[in-house]
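User: quick one, fold this
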Amino acid sequence: MGREMAHGQAATEMLVLAGFALVFIIPLAFLFLSATNNEMAKASLVQAKASARSIADSAGEVYLQGAGARKFIVVNYPQGVAGASVGNGAVALKIDGGSGQQDVVATTFANITGNLTGRRTAGLQAIRLENVGGYVVNVTYAK
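Assistant:
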């Protein structure tokens, strides 16, 4: 009977130790996942800023080249792009993040217009920029 009691006590002690381990591991796992999500959101914002800046800089370049100038660029949209727009000297990307929707804006000296409302998926996007009449740059998705 003493031997069976020792096996029961060892099993109980093992369960208690496993319980204590879970009490410490589970909060650490949640903390790690939360930190990872925050870093992913920051990375998406940085990627959106780079994409908007690339479009704005290319628009300025095409504007300076004069009437008829064209350029095709490829930008990489991050996860969560809810929309894009150009006009009034600015390129804006709307990003859905964990803390709500944010706008990422890049400005340019060029007079720009266009339509970037078609594609909103993450990944590579081909953008066409064309100087129309020497005074405005039209920015659209390339076909």
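User: anything notable?
Assistant: Helices lie at 2-65.
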